[in-house]
């Protein structure tokens, strides 16, 4: 068993518990929303939010993994700043303290003295996710070789909206809490290649009577010749690439929508959340996820990318792959890497997937996408 992978899964389960706890009471949830500062904004949205749930989840993941693996502590990176400003204008750095009582005291400052809410959140943050048995054989990767990317709550907008009655088409939800994911991925520091990943879906199903949500998670390990995952799936060498199904963002460029629409016909879907769209590919609900813009980031992709690699697929830079194809380069698969920032970029854009992306389970489907989109400008 990989102890690091088990720790990532446990951290994702704790994160999912916190995310669900923060949505149980509408009044509490309204206390948890704070607009992001300008330099932290994702330019894709007119209004972009961070929530205390986001920050608390991220800090819980960093705390738990860092405590178990000290070599990893300085190499766990996330989307969110842990600095919050309360109603009195006080700047507070959110963190997981040594005791639940200390964490509750800190959170009460963020929540303007709401001790009941702070205690509930501190309890979720300190609760153990329990022991897990993952069938990963004896594969071990030294923690000193790894870096970790965390997206504490991907699709924050859907999390805030809280739509619970979204109806899936072909298994794919276009919106709603089902599109919310917790994403954790580990990559090799020297090469930037992803090796372990977890995608946790905190709101996978809702009990019609109690209205309580339950979640599910998926993990993958891809290191050297070892490819393992929770889907108990191995790469299928016989893939029909003549037919293609895809999931896109509703904000995708018209030219991409048009060309993929012609290739996919009715098997084209639109959904919220980069992590969720990756999950649709991981689960085999669609063949590919294509995004031509530069508004996804390393934390969105590292975990799902590792799982896709374990399935025989991957995730590539769309524009670079198209450029290589036009130039006839032998290796047209420009895999996304996670250890280096974008040259000349600033703020969150340093970690953007600047060339867009294609997530795929089969290289045959990647080839089909590049063929379909080969007329796009680089």
UniProtKB/TrEMBL annotation:
It catalyses: 1D-myo-inositol 1,4-bisphosphate + H2O = 1D-myo-inositol 4-phosphate + phosphate; 1D-myo-inositol 1,3,4-trisphosphate + H2O = 1D-myo-inositol 3,4-bisphosphate + phosphate. Pathway: Signal transduction; phosphatidylinositol signaling pathway. Its EC number is 3.1.3.57. Keywords: Hydrolase, Lithium, Magnesium, Metal-binding, Phosphoprotein. PANTHER family: 3'(2'),5'-BISPHOSPHATE NUCLEOTIDASE 1, INOSITOL POLYPHOSPHATE 1-PHOSPHATASE. It comes from Erpetoichthys calabaricus. Its cofactor is Mg(2+). One of its GO terms (biological process) is phosphatidylinositol phosphate biosynthetic process. It comes from the Eukaryota. Mg(2+) binds at residues 79, 151, 153-154, 300. One of its GO terms (molecular function) is inositol-1,4-bisphosphate 1-phosphatase activity. Monomer. Belongs to the inositol monophosphatase superfamily. It is an enzyme of class 3 (hydrolase). Mg(2+)-dependent phosphatase that catalyzes the hydrolysis of the 1-position phosphate from inositol 1,4-bisphosphate and inositol 1,3,4-trisphosphate and participates in inositol phosphate metabolism. This is Inositol polyphosphate 1-phosphatase.
